[in-house]
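Sample pair:
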Amino acid sequence: MPQKRILSLWFPRLAAERLLRLDRGLAGGPLAVVADRRGAQVLASLNAEAEAAGLAPGLPLRDAHAICPDLVSRPENPHAEAAFLATLRRWAGKFTPWVAEEPPDALVLDITGCAHLFGGEEELVATVEADCAGLGLSVRLGLADTVGAAWALARFSGATPDTGPAGDAIDQEARATRSRATRRRHWTRGGQPPGRAGPTGHPPARIAAVGSARAAIAPLPVAALRIEGETVAALARLGLRRVGDILGTPRAGLARRFGTQLVRRLDQALGMEPEPVSPARPALRFALRLRLPEPIGLEDDLAAGIDRLLAELAPRLERAGRGARQVRVEFSRTDRTMQAIEVGLARPATAPERIRPLLAMKLGDIDAGFGIDQLRLSVPVHEPVHAEQHRGHLAAGEAAAQGDGRALDDLMGRIGTRLGLEALTRLHPAESHIPEKSATIMAAAFAPPSTDWRPGPTERPLRLWPPEPVLIPALPGLPARLRWRGRDHEVVAGEGPERIAPEWWFDDPGWRSGSRDYWRVTTHRGERLWIYFAHGAALSPGWFCHGAFA
């Protein structure tokens, strides 16, 4: 079994170089991507010109402008950067199928058994660098036997240990021993440590030979073990600045003083604890293509081709446990042009007999021209389909008597094909005592019917409209006559009042007339109206009609 080999790709300027790829006009000067960290604007990513000007990530934006007045800043866009990293992951699939993301700016590749396809590890690394240079991206690479070692080489290869207070610093020693401390020159004994090289000082690639992960990471700073900054500072206070300084230290003492995370990261870097690479699962895609030996143009021939594709699509969807919510058919013509039709379904479906009628409704929109020689059927949107299990014969019989709802779904699909699925709506209950807010309008195709309608305190009208004024004196109490919509009505019967108060935590313009006393009245014409008397607040009191009963 070949030795596992891990390649770590770090893109230190990913956010800034993504913007440079989108807008080539930004490439002429310093550029910084600004992020909000605890209410402060700090630099998150820089291009090469900004780093050459002396800027560094984490620097406040106002200090950066003082150092580099020509700095151009852009806000951070985490979603776009994550999408760009996913694009780079798909690009890295050309080297190995085992690629994982390390947000926000790195990839991990398991290239075990793949390097010989590119002429060896050196040639594979050179190919990666050449591709990144062509994409306009800066990359740092590390290649080792473990994920931890490759991560450390990619970020810290060539860097000296970080500067920090040592346990034998002159200000931490007793007065009697300070005279001896001045004679110490080496940085491991309290002397002045050497300067640290930044990320831009890294060599372009670092490769550790097979089985030499321990020797490769020994001279690196302890921060290369992927531990917290507090742990790095605590180790530095004891004079432990390199990974090699803690390799021979007893593990029990390290775990007791610095926690198990330090020991775990060290074991992962050395390969004593496995750390597998978990690649992202590829998205499910369903697409079929039918090439024709001779061009066709009749509607019946196109329908026959769609039938062949649907018959092959159905078992694929069933095996994956998915149902089509949107189906697209592309027709390639002999003159190298393409036309397409697209339909949506009210519920996810796999059966061809439920998809075929919707596509047939739009076949008349296709202009075959000189003939169509290729059909492509795809499912851009699909959802999981779960089988419904009935509890006992009684429940199964009730479900069979009521039907499974497919007829209604197919009807919504046919109407949605002509008008759009968004045009079909249904009401869902809402948590509000205000009449016009007691229900929410939702798309019928994307929201199942609600079964938790709670009965109101009193009967509610079937139809509601914006309150319309009723021309009677503004006096409380049920009136004997009223004038509404230009007609006089005699009140035959009335029930009420039902007082509804406005939501005091909202300033609703429609409720600035104060509390309302609702009445259910029956007129001499047989109409049942829902009227109310507004007691007045920011607006004058008066009578209004709000709805009608069935």
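The chain has a mean pLDDT of 84.
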